[in-house]
From TrEMBL:
Entries under InterPro entries matching the protein: ATPase_NBD, FtsA/MreB, SHS2_FtsA
Lineage per the UniProt record: Bacteria, Bacillati, Bacillota, Negativicutes, Selenomonadales
Top-level lineage group: Bacteria
Name of the featured protein: Cell division protein FtsA
Keyword field: Cell cycle, Cell division
Xref: SMART domains: FtsA
Gene3D superfamilies membership: 3.30.420.40
One Pfam family, short name: FtsA
SHS2 domain: residues covered: 6-203
Biological process annotations from GO: cell division
Gene: ftsA_4
């Protein structure tokens, strides 16, 4: 009976670890292991920089393992945690018309949150090239319905549902560089996981994740952080600060080659009291381990502070305990410095080794070290995961999916950039209009749902996907916004009968849209204000019938200058003088008045002259006003009275002179004509009771009396 071999590679910044296990009765039995360090700094911060150099180390490890296990063709690997980008996101869904919510509704909300995370990643500036990242996993923090936090939406009813989740993104470059190095040595990537996920699966099983624990994998280039709480992994993080910075500090202090400084660093944590080395100048030195530890202490403190800041940022509080793994976990004084930075007891920060791992047997003592946690985790996950990449066809387009977990139809839609909500078909936007001050809503048409076919059969978003599946996605069609006509919303009012200058008319009373008369076939828009059966004014009626007369214009030459005079039309309604804005009623009789031309007084504005200088006297006991100015008007050279009509085009000369009122002016103002007296009568003129002449001057307030005596 052939036994299944599992091959795992931990391609780290400092070294490559290879493990081969044999699957037997559900357990993995370790059968071979190998380790080799990079000859140069071909990897920095967990990223492959020299594919060929890394491939040479992979080939060496693979060759030595194959001497024990036979040919190895497929391998499980892990991507560096430093490449992860995690976003906490939320999304909402209007569920008022959904009835009881289903698993499909819950899944749609989850995927809406993922698409919101993709949109945020594209605009947040968190990564330089968002298009090179795609989602490799997410975890739900909570659901809520109408503002109430809830464990699951399935079977619930409500108006608004919401989700909070953590989405994790991985750059394609990480996978591409790993694949290139593996393909160079004839290996196919069978399983891809993430380094922090591999480590946490070894040391913190699901039964421990109700505790608020922090796992830190301190490598050479990066320190990966994973945090558990409330039964799940709540956050992943990364600090670009690890063992290499400590090595650099020793290298700078003692002028050492980087590889020599790395050796000195490792020896300082052992039992050696003195450490010998040769610097770049060729000088041999022998330094106490305490001095070397003292040289690296500032950098250890910086690393602890950086880790503490990341933990507190992700966890929002001090954790219950911290577990340190990775080769960098052995850095002297790191546990103590981290405990101090987090302000927790030193006993709560511990270096962990994989003494025993559930599901793996036969672990030799050489692998019971902190830097063996991640490779053992990769091997463990390799035994329970299917291929990490599958190829599917979506709408005749080939898509390669990263299979971190069970893939569904929804994952394919996300990878293809298809908006999950577009499958439903949104209803068309409605219109809100106002009719005579009352608001009315006109709904848009309903959208049509889309269709998903998997291998020719109808499928749902949460249906599982397999390699070589074919998907056809027809998006839903959105409803359309309504385009109502005015006549469909408001019927035209009855015609208004009126009479103008003896003729009968029927007036169409207009319907206005936003204050402007509109035709029955006018297409209405959102927020339109419709007024039906408004009161028709006299001016509107005359305009509708084209009977509105134009004002009469008269032009003159007054004292050598051109002057115009306008007479506006006048109207009566039922024989009463009316203004143009007078509202009409049914049966009104309207007359357009024929106005005479203006008088000379109108054109010259004589009646509007200031009369404040006129005097008032009593004539025979009756008040009488006497002007103190005299107007002289010549029309075309002829003396004319100001009460005569002013013919348009006339040349008018107009002068005004001051005068001293006399008794004769009083008689003229009082319309007293002496010639009308009998021939035999004699007249006595009294001014303030005293006899006077017709030429006597009068003043304001004087009393003039005429006595007539017949002989």
């Amino acid at each position: 009976m052939n036994k299944q071999l599992l091959f795992a590679l931990d391609i780290g910044t400092r070294s490559v670890v290879g493990l081969v296990g044999e699957m037997e009765n559900g357990l993995i039995k370790l059968v071979a292991s190998d380790r080799e360090e990079h000859h140069t700094r071909a990897m920095l911060d967990g990223q492959i920089h020299d594919v060929q150099e890394v491939a040479e180390v992979l080939a060496s490890v693979k060759t030595r393992l194959e001497a024990t296990t036979g040919a190895l063709t497929k391998v499980a690997v892990a991507a560096a945690g430093r490449a992860l980008c995690t976003l906490k996101i939320s999304a909402t869904l209007d569920t008022a018309s959904h009835g009881a919510l289903t698993t499909e509704d819950e899944r749609s909300l989850e995927l809406a949150a993922i698409q919101a995370a993709q949109a945020e990643l594209a605009t947040s500036g968190a990564v330089p090239q968002p298009s090179d990242y795609y989602c490799v996993g997410y975890s739900v923090i909570s659901f809520s319905l109408d503002g109430t936090r809830i464990k699951s939406l399935v079977g619930q009813r409500g108006k608004h549902s919401a989700i909070e989740a953590i989405a994790t993104f991985l750059p394609r470059q990480v996978i591409d560089s790993l694949q290139s190095a593996l393909q160079t040595v004839g290996l196919e990537m069978s399983t891809l996981t993430l380094e922090p996920i591999a480590a946490i699966n070894v040391l913190i099983p699901t039964t421990m994740r109700h505790l608020n624990l922090v796992l830190i994998d301190v490598g050479a280039g990066t320190s990966d952080v994973a945090i558990t709480r409330d039964g799940s992994v709540i956050a992943y993080g990364m600090v670009p600060f690890a063992g290499d910075e400590i090595t650099e500090a020793i290298s700078q202090q003692y002028l050492l080659d980087f590889n020599v400084a790395e050796t000195v660093k490792r020896q300082s944590g052992g039992k050696n009291k003195k450490i010998s080395f040769t610097d770049v100048l060729g000088m041999s030195q022998k330094v106490s381990a305490k001095d070397i530890v003292a040289a690296m202490t500032p950098k250890v403190g910086e690393l602890a502070q950086a880790l503490a800041a990341e933990i507190l940022a992700l966890n929002n509080e001090r954790p219950q305990a911290v577990l340190l793994v990775g080769g960098g976990a052995l850095t002297p004084l790191l546990p103590e410095a981290l405990a101090q930075a987090l302000d927790i007891p030193a006993a709560k920060v511990a270096i962990r080794c994989p003494d025993s791992i559930e599901g793996i047997i036969g672990i030799p003592k050489t692998l019971c070290t902190p830097d063996s946690v991640t490779p053992l985790g990769i091997l463990k996950l390799a035994g329970g995961r299917m291929l990490n990449f599958i190829n599917i066809t979506l709408n005749e387009r080939t898509i390669r999916l990263f299979n971190l977990s069970r893939l569904t139809v929804a994952d394919a839609l996300l990878a293809a950039g298809i908006d999950i909500r577009a499958l439903r078909g949104r209803p068309g936007m409605g219109l809100t209009i106002s009719v005579n001050g009352k608001t009315r809503f006109i709904a848009g048409s309903h959208g049509n749902p889309g269709e998903i076919l998997k291998n020719g059969q109808p499928a749902k978003l949460n249906d599982a996907l397999h390699d070589q599946d074919t998907l056809v996605v027809n998006l839903g069609t959105n409803g359309t916004a309504p385009e109502p006509l005015l006549k469909d919303i408001a019927a035209a009012p009855e015609s208004l009968p009126i009479t103008i200058d003896g003729k009968n008319y029927l007036l169409e009373q207009p319907i206005t849209v936003n204050g402007t008369p509109a035709a029955p076939n006018t297409i209405l828009c959102d927020r339109d204000q419709i007024c039906v059966n408004p009161k028709l004014t006299l001016k509107q009626a005359l305009q509708q019938l084209a009977l509105e007369p134009a004002p009469a214009e008269y032009v003159y030459q007054v004292n050598g200058s051109e002057r115009s005079y306008t007479i506006w039309p006048q109207y009566t309604i039922n024989n009463v003088l009316a203004a143009p804005d007078t509202l009409l009623a049914s049966g009104n009789t309207i007359e357009i008045l024929k106005l005479p031309p203006p008088t000379l007084a109108d054109v010259l504005g004589i009646n509007s002259q200031d009369s404040s200088s006129d005097i008032k006297v009593l004539f025979n006991g009756t008040p009488c006003t006497i002007p103190t100015h005299r107007h002289t008007v010549l029309v075309d050279g002829h003396l004319a009275d100001i009460s005569l009509p002013a013919i348009s085009g006339s040349a008018i000369d107009f002068t005004t002179s001051d005068l001293q009122p006399l008794i004769s002016d009083v008689l003229l103002a009082a319309d007293f004509d002496p010639l009308s007296l009998p021939v035999t009568a004699s007249v006595n003129v009294l001014l303030n009771g005293l006899a006077t002449e017709f030429t006597a001057i009068v003043k304001n307030g004087d009393s003039v009396t005429i006595q007539i005596i017949e002989k």
